Amino acid sequence: MYTQYILLTGEVLLLALLVWFITHPATFYIRLTDSEFSSFHPNFKSWSFSVDPHDIVAIEQSTDQGAHASYISVKMADGRCFLLSPNFGYNRKKLYEALRLVNPHIKTPTYRWLFSRKAGL
Predict the structure, then answer these.
(1) Mean pLDDT, to the nearest integer, of 35-59?
(2) Which of 47, 50, 98, 116 has the CA that lies 20 to 30 A from 14?
(3) Model confidence, pTM
């Protein structure tokens, strides 16, 4: 008898959660202007940042074998490093081309689909 109430309560909570996710979709975006390169990830604050694209030195792609994860690093002239989400469906080729238009000195990966291997980050 209690099992039925627990299952019913769980189903109602899951349905309410589904309705909330449908009515409040998460939004990922990348914005690039002459004075700002920003990324917003709704779930991971470490992938959210805003910088001046003229201060970017390089974009590097790597894979951490130990963590089984891929990284896209935005390296800054002052030594800071920001992570760009590797798992959303944006076009890296177009992004890298647009970044080079704003700042031709940015080093970007030659092969956007290739992630170099690193032992640990």
Answers:
(1) 90
(2) 47
(3) 0.66
